């Protein structure tokens, strides 16, 4: 009995001394010593700013002692001037001839994180075709776009490149169609009056056109140019130099994006909560619309598709829209998303 007691005691001591599994530690969220206001340039109600809206409402910026101030502009191209002069701290942009020409003229900024990419099965931008043309069998393949009028929001931007790629798949060029410029809201009106035959449209206007029987969601941009980098976040040089603030902003932002990704893609968790946040901040106010929309893809690790941006740059340069040589490596700065990943860990998609 004594031997049993001694053996039992030894076993207890051995178990007590054995190393215990380390508990997962909560990430140490950076907090600034003094409150800081960060000015964000935006076009009102954009769905692609979902990560910011969620981070605001969930208190992630507040935890880092950051206050967000939105500075409104009419369109994405109008953001280049204010960010280059430091009037705003960060903004969104996209690969376009205008953007690259601004860089060539000496505008200093940094591309720092993904804002919207056409990931497979998850593209909020789509090539729409008028419903009567689909129902009547007049458009079945890309080749059937010959002679058609196709609307895009802006020429010399990635959306034009995507239309040209679609045409090429049908053995067509821009000479075989009539490409016209048109604001997104006017596209659905033009479908109704049959002024256009097709358009590269964005959500929620894609779903609106489908519900009203005006057009069919024919091909997503993810089917035409998989993983197209549609837009990205940019830091001004001054803001990037304020390293602590710039890093803290990115950590809070990725926390918001990950909640968005969880809600709509991975776990489908807290979907109602995230939809509620989006209805308060975007132009899509009806929660039911989110059930039928293809929402914008936003990378939960903030990672950019630099190869996609390089492809766009080369296309614009080849067509003579961007003179000279631009080195993307000098304007893409992924140090801020890498810092945020170190703090939060990588998100497994």
Would you write up a description of this structure?
With 349 residues, the chain is an alpha/beta fold. It has a 5-stranded mixed sheet with strand order 7-6-8-5-9, sandwiched between helices. A 3-stranded antiparallel sheet has the order 3-10-4. 41% of the residues lie in helices and 18% in strands. The chain has 2 domains: 36-119 and 228-344, D-Maltodextrin-Binding Protein, domain 2, CATH 3.40.190; 125-224, D-Maltodextrin-Binding Protein, domain 2 (3-Layer(aba) Sandwich). 43% of the residues are buried.
Summary keywords:
10 strands; about 350 residues; about 20% strand; about 40% helix; disordered N terminus; 16 helices; 3-stranded antiparallel sheet; alpha/beta; D-Maltodextrin-Binding Protein, domain 2
Tell me the layout of helices and strands.
Layout: H1 2-17, E1 36-42, H2 50-57, H3 60-63, E2 66-72, H4 80-84, E3 90-93, H5 97-104, E4 109-118, E5 125-130, H6 131-135, E6 149-152, H7 158-168, E7 178-181, H8 184-192, E8 198-202, H9 205-211, E9 215-220, H10 221-224, E10 228-236, H11 237-241, H12 243-266, H13 271-281, H14 289-292, H15 306-318, H16 335-344
Helix pairs in contact: 2-12, 2-13, 12-16
């Amino acid at each position: 009995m004594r031997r049993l007691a001694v053996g039992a005691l030894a076993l207890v001591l051995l178990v007590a001394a054995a190393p215990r599994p380390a508990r997962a530690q909560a990430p140490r969220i950076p907090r600034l010593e003094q409150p800081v206001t960060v000015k964000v340039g935006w076009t009102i109600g954009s769905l692609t700013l979902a990560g910011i809206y969620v981070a605001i409402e969930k208190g992630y910026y507040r935890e880092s002692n950051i206050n967000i101030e939105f500075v409104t502009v009419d369109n994405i191209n109008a953001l280049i001037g204010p960010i280059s002069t430091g009037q705003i701290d960060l903004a969104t942009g996209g690969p376009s001839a205008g953007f690259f020409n601004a860089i060539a003229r000496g505008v200093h900024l940094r591309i720092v994180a993904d804002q919207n990419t056409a990931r497979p099965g998850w593209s909020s931008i789509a090539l729409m075709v008028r419903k009567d043309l689909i129902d009547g069998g007049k458009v079945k393949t890309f080749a059937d776009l010959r002679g058609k009028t196709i609307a895009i929001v802006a020429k010399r931007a990635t959306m034009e490149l995507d239309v040209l790629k679609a045409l090429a798949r049908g053995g067509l060029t821009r000479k075989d169609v009539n490409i016209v410029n048109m604001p997104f809201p006017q596209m659905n009106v033009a479908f109704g009056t049959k002024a256009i035959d097709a358009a590269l449209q964005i959500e929620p206007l894609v779903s609106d056109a489908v519900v009203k029987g005006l057009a069919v969601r024919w091909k997503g941009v993810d089917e035409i140019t998989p993983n197209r980098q549609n837009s990205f976040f940019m830091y001004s040089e001054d803001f990037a130099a304020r390293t602590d603030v710039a890093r803290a902003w990115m950590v809070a932002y990725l926390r918001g994006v990950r909640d968005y990704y969880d809600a709509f893609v991975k776990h489908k968790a807290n979907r109602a909560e995230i939809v509620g946040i989006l209805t308060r901040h975007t132009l899509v106010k009806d929660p039911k619309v989110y059930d039928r929309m293809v929402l914008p893809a936003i990378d939960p690790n903030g990672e950019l598709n630099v190869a996609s941006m390089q492809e766009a740059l080369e296309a614009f340069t080849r067509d003579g829209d961007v003179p000279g040589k631009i080195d993307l490596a000098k304007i893409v700065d992924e140090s801020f998303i890498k810092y945020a990943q170190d703090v939060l860990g990588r998100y497994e998609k």
